[in-house]
């Protein structure tokens, strides 16, 4: 046999396995895995002695801003950032201008993004309520990875951009939907069988409490938290999980930030509701106590909460309540991220730093490498219907592979990020455990931090359409 690429002597890591072997790649697929040398010649070979070979990591929550505010980010740069950070597949969020809201905008988006993609990608469709309930079935047919409802946000009437700092009476703004209208989204998504992902913060609670605290003139981080408290997540997650149980819609709670949110999800799962959940590195590695050091960059919605929430989220990962870790890569420029806490947009880039931060946490004993492959490869692939094509190292599946060096040390530097918006809360953080090679369908896209191939990423669709 003539192999296209042979990765020798690495330690294979999946949620269930941990062993030394060589991987043989042919035509973009994993053709064989063996602990004995197989016959044949290799066009290309890597010696991964001392390194770990993981199923390609998946980031289910990325805002690439393309088309739309591409001065913040575009798909060329977001997918380079992903590849640089060891990610082989991203799911791109639909809050673009225009948003991915019907079959026509889905197909236009595939055409727009494919020539820029350095990694493979799934596309979220947006759920706008009465404005596109009628389009959810065609979006399902077209191949969306799931539907996203931005619960808690108002959106601009013309551009559909999120309104980060909503106040009643603002011009050109569509106010958040009523509970009944949200339930109708659940009913319609249930018919498609796709996952419905929610940003879970209660908008009317946030509005009232934010107005109260703003009146006091405070601009500190605790004031932001008083305006968007744990309660805002708790009540929306409770309602969302009840809506999921009643409608049958497969709910995915995005970026869980609180002990209360995690507990509500645990409760719903115990009752048999079809609910999954993710959290993000900023909720696992930061708390309100970091704000004095990090500053306004740390404004992310939902906001990073308290030390006790951070502990509760690790607990929820360990007991299986939270099964996915995503980045919520949400770039804004350094200029946009400085200024008054009430006025600046929420979000921060993260797809390049998520794997290094999680690998560092493995070295710190917070989780095992096998658990990491569950959280970042197998579980997302299974939940969104792309397993085992993605998220596995099974023979016959896509040769998406992330090679990591657990002894390698690095320092995260904002200036070195591949994103257009060179912003991170982790500037200067020392990391031990680094992705050293990103392989997408057999092609090495990143080697030792350098982008060496692409763009040749492709759309991935759920198998269960
Ligand atoms: C995201 C963005 O900017 O698109 N911002 C954020 O703070 N997380 C939107 C979102 O995920 O809520
Ligand atoms: Zn969100
Ligand atoms: Zn997001």
Automatic annotation (TrEMBL):
Pathway: Nitrogen metabolism; (S)-allantoin degradation; allantoate from (S)-allantoin: step 1/1. Keywords: Hydrolase, Metal-binding, Zinc. Pfam families: Amidohydro_1 (PF01979). The keyword Acetylation does not apply. It comes from the Bacteria. The keyword Zinc applies. Its cofactor is Zn(2+). SUPFAM superfamilies: Composite domain of metallo-dependent hydrolases (SSF51338), Metallo-dependent hydrolases (SSF51556). Homotetramer. Catalyzes the reversible cyclization of carbamoyl aspartate to dihydroorotate. Belongs to the metallo-dependent hydrolases superfamily. DHOase family. Class I DHOase subfamily. This is allantoinase.
